[in-house]
Amino acid sequence: MNARPDHAVDLSDSALLAWPAPCADAPSHLLPDAPHALLTRSYLDALLAGDRRRASALILDAVAAGVAVKDIYLHVFQRAQHEVGRLWQVHAISVAQEHYCTAATQLIMSQLYPHIFAVENTGGTLVATCVSGDLHEIGVRMVADFFEMDGWNTFYLGANMPDADIVGALIERQADVLAISATISTHVRAVSTLIESVRANEQCRAVNILVGGYPFVVAPDLWRKIGADGSAADAQGAIVLANQLRRRGIAS
Amino acid sequence: MSTHTDQQGIALLCGANGAVLRVIRDELELPDLFRVGRTLAELVTASEADTVAAFLKVLADRGAAFNWTLPVDIAGVSTPLYFAGVAEGDHFYLVAARSSVGLARFHEELMLINNEQTNALRAALKELSVQQRQDARRDSALYEDLSRLNNELATLQREMAKKNIELEQLNTVKNELLGMAAHDLRSPLGVIQNYSDFLEADAGPQLSDEHRAFISTIKRTSRFMLGLVDDLLDVTTIEAGRLTLDRQPSDLGRLLADNVPLNRTLAARKNITIELATTDSLPMVTLDARRIEQVLNNLIGNAMKFAPPGSRVTVSAAATADAVTIRVTDQGPGIPAADLPNLFKPFAKATARGTAGEKSTGLGLAIVGKVVAAHGGRIWVESEVGKGASFVVSLPLA
Fold it and tell me: Domain check: are A198 and A239 in the same one?
């Protein structure tokens, strides 16, 4: 079997999961002195053992004990996902385990939604989407959740949404920012087409467009070429940029 | 002396763990024994598992092993077979015969038909790898599709969680609004009632019968509105989760005996009799007396509303080891099955109408249901159209 699926070559889909070019001897992401290192280790062990209930209990207990949901996302989910990608690359786990871990993490994330959506909306409105549905879609959804925790009103549209519907959602929600994620370079064309559709609509003039994902990490200037307003290396960077763009929009 | 049988052999393609992947040639005619999937360790007598392991290790380490005797369990008899093999990548190519001479002969013959055998071996390996590739491709496509499916579900779940929270917030706002509106309606209604009383008392004797009837209508209507406002406040309080019960050990028999007669004045106007069955042997029950009185009066009021003149409403109570039940039975028109599921929902209106044109707020039974539930109790209805209805409340004793 020599044809590895795209997601093996490219560990990162979204800005959040941005990841340097993979190499076989990549070091583990579970550093012992990282915040919540023990929790992350136990969480990943539970997932690799196929025990999503234990993984879920670990997270819910931690949140009940006062660990911030943002920290769970940043330090546990994100690092565990990176480690899963690495383990798959070095053939330490099977493709089935990789998919299981991602699916279980998505489920556990959804158990945290009551915390995430309880944050009062004080910021702008974000519509987020990605141009391909694969394992890495979890990344852009995590980005949307980060915006939600920052007080933004967010709407995550799935990967299969036609461009016209995305434009419709931007108008209906009076979105300030559209975030688009791409997994691999061949998806950049689709991102570019979507941007053209948004720009062509008069009612979307105020919408700022952020792009993220692996192609924009390896080519830092690519966002400008396809007509976006910016790109960020991680979720926190995306929020800072989105807030700047929004303030500039309000001021002008 | 070697026999013909001794010279026959078997050629196998095995995996690194000794599992049979292909039977290339079987002159021994032991298809049940040398089956695809079985390992060498399973074929030999149990005590010889170490020898098999050693054989496989030599094969793996040195690339070949010759003339190993492994006792194979053939139909319950431990029969020595002579094995030789070579390693080919991750696979072992093995030959075995009943004697070492047979092994040599068999191997020689295999060498003679080497080309044919090599071709067979090549074809077998190719077929295996094609199969593996196809399986891997199919698995990969399935995983990708499952992943997309999971993404769509996760996206829907996110949207639903967001909408749920919005709904909860809307519900809170609705309850606050209702509570506020009801509260603000109370004071003017009190003024209307008080001034109607003053008017009736001070000017009553000078008024015509028609004007006195106007005042009476004003009083009745404002009383109904006050009841509605009180019920609304109750419902919003309960729905907002602010219903706090003051539960004390109470004499339920006494509570019934005190409250049932209070309804008799109203019942007499419709020529309805209210009977209270004996309540002497009821135990003490931990309950919020004011709220259970409200339950009782709402149920009796409801029964009287639908009972025809001249009929009877019966109130009874009974105790079991772990619960008490209060039963209010009327001789009204009964409740159609279609009305039953909505009976205890706020603002649900029954199809039946009050026999004296009584108005219904649609809140009385909703409050009853919620108060009973807050006590950890249950309420249900036993009814047959045309034969009256029984509302039964069960309250736990513990």
Answer: yes
pLDDT given at position A8:
33
Say yes or no for a CB contact (<8 Å) between A107 and B154. Answer: yes
Q: Which CATH class is domain B248-396?
A: alpha beta
Average pLDDT, chain B: 85
pLDDT per residue, tens digit, chain A (252 aa), is 344 334 333 333 443 444 444 444 678 888 888 899 999 999 999 999 999 999 999 999 999 999 999 999 989 999 999 999 899 888 889 888 999 999 999 999 999 998 898 888 888 999 999 987 777 888 899 999 999 999 999 999 988 789 999 999 999 999 999 999 998 888 899 999 999 999 999 999 999 999 998 899 899 899 999 999 999 988 889 999 999 998 887 776
Residue A66 CB contacts under 8 Å (≥ 6 apart), including other chains: none
Q: CB atoms < 10 A from the CB of B77, how many? A: 9
Beta-sheet strand order (sheet of B91-97): B20-26, B9-14, B91-97, B77-88, B64-74
Given this model, what pLDDT does residue B2 score?
45
Spatial distance between the Cα atoms of B300 and A84, rounded to a whole number of angstroms: 66
H/E element, A136 = none
What are the residues whose beta carbons fall under 8 Å from the beta carbon of A47, sequence distance 6 or more?
Answer: A55, A80, A84, A100, A101, A104, A105
pTM of the model: 0.59
> Which of A52-66, B223-237, B305-319 is predicted most confidently?
A52-66
Residue showing tokens 């290790």 = B57
Closest residue in chain B to residue A157, using alpha carbons only: B155
d(CA A100, CA A95): 9
Residue B150 Cα, gap to closest chain A Cα (Å): 7
Q: How many Cα atoms sit within 13 Å of B335 on the Cβ side?
A: 21
Q: Which residue has the tokens 């919020």?
A: B288
Coil vs helix vs strand at B325: strand
Distance in Å, alpha carbon of B148 to nearest chain A alpha carbon: 5
How close, in Å, is residue B41 to chain A by CA atoms?
A: 27
Give residue A252's pLDDT: 65
Chain B's closest residue to A102, CA to CA, is B147
Q: Which residues contact B272 (CB under 8 A, 6 or more apart)?
A: B304, B307, B309, B310, B311, B312, B313
The answer to whether A9 faces chain B, any CB pair under 8 Å, is: no
CATH of the domain at A175: 3.40.50.280
Q: Kindly determine whether residue A102 and residue B154, on different chains, have CB atoms separated by under 8 Å.
A: no
- One CATH from 3.40.50.1260, 3.20.20.140, 3.30.70.240, 1.10.287.130 for B165-239: 1.10.287.130
- The CB-based long-range contact list for B165-171 (8 Å cut-off, 24+ gap) reads B165/A114, B165/A117, B165/A118, B171/B239
Q: Please name the residues between 263 and 282 in chain B that touch chain A, using a CB distance below 8 Å.
A: none
- Neighbouring CB atoms inside 10 A of B243's CB total 17
Is A94 touching B (CB cutoff 8 A)?
no
Contacts of B140 (CB under 8 A, 6+ apart): A5, A95
